[in-house]
Design brief:
alpha/beta, Rossmann fold, 2 domains, six-stranded parallel β-sheet, four-stranded parallel β-sheet, binds D-glutamic acid
Amino acid sequence: MSGPVLIFDSGVGGLSVARSLTSRHPDIPVCYACDNAWLPYGLRDDVTLSRRILAVCQAAVTACQASALVVACNTASTLALSGLRETLDIPVIGTVPAIKPAALASRTRHIGLLATRATVHRPYTQDLIERFASDCEVTKVAADALVTEAEAWLAGQRVDRARLQDALEPLWQAVIASRPLDTVVLGCTHFPLLKPVLETLAPRPLQWIDSGDAIARRVVDVMPHARGPQDGRSFTTADADHLVRGFEAFGFKAPHRLSLP
Ligand code: DGL
């Protein structure tokens, strides 16, 4: 194998995907890049964001000589996957909301989609719902506050439970509805980092579904020979001193600053 698998996100959310991948396949070398200068992606406009994603991913792929790119960000994937595939000459694996497994798992046929505002409104997401959950009621909740709370958590700060509770209120209303929601798609890679807190806030036990395991399987399908010594380099686009300990906890070294054209 010629280079590591690069995991990319706007911020620390991709670490949840890195965890899924490395816990199943510790012999796949991975490095990490995030565009923390532009975080959060979920509140950016589509045109400038897609240009930015291309520029940062190209720079990051070059910096670590990656042999494959995992776009560990639903907000970026639902916007820029085809552009990245046209531009880069390595395999590009995307992350999109796990609507299909959630629809398969739901008994009540009422599922929730918890994601950024951008992902909730993307045609790509609507298309997934029509294709895989047409017989389900889908409650979509834009919860961008969870992105900043996950960033704070990784930096070692206390999570603001009242802020989370406010953002999650529409979801909880659906949980106690006459046809109760029983399954939640974590459609943003930051959210699995908060899952232990989300579980304690939910009015009753729910099935929480994210895309981490599916991505780990996809990496192995696409790169069956991706084996080698661990890499662990990380790259950011802005100061990340506050993230060093969090990155280390997920197996990554202190980040280098990515130079952008
Ligand atoms: N982690 C990203 C996702 O999966 C989004 C976070 C952001 O808004 O930047 O959608």
